[in-house]
Amino acid sequence: MQDKIIQHSLFDSSSLYQTLSIPTLSLLMSKTSLGEWKEKIYNYQHKTRNVKLISQSSLFNEIDQVQEFIKINPFELPLQPVEFYRLPVSDRGDASIYFIIDFVDHIILYIGETCRSNLRWKGQHDCKRYIQNYQNLHYSHGIKTAINAGFWNYAPTLSKSRQKLELDLIYDWRSPFNKEIWQYWGTPFTN
Prior knowledge:
Layout: H1 13-20, H2 25-28, H3 31-51, E1 54-55, E2 69-70, E3 79-81, E4 96-102, E5 107-114, H4 119-122, H5 126-140, E6 147-152, H6 159-173, H7 182-185
Antiparallel strand pairs: 1-2, 3-6, 4-5, 4-6
């Protein structure tokens, strides 16, 4: 009889799977930590919402001089699905400031500016990944979300003016998915 040759694996199969497994966000942030993170943001934004009055000067006579102060309440803007970029383009590429909001928790997650609202998001916009990670973590903890986009279509048409307004809003609201604000809330959804 011939002896059978047995080849042993260099790696135990169970350890191989352990090394290839990808940690989930639920391991990175507990349900309690997630609630505390959102509560801090809500408390800050709630104070901002109650006193928010944006002063905007008219650069290059772009905006009517009578309109010295503009009050933007992102929570009262007409809503679109967070995947607005997949919808047929119905606008002419109007200048806009947009807000990505979780309406369950009433927090603004991201603020952006655009002159072509659908085009920028059709590509690799980082915020899409943050939203997906945010939703996945909530789902893994059994927590509901209702994420929508609100567009404010009265933004300056000049890029520099619109981007300044966007930056002012980002710092005023401290929207956690904007990189300028990561120092305040951390980056739990960027991985």
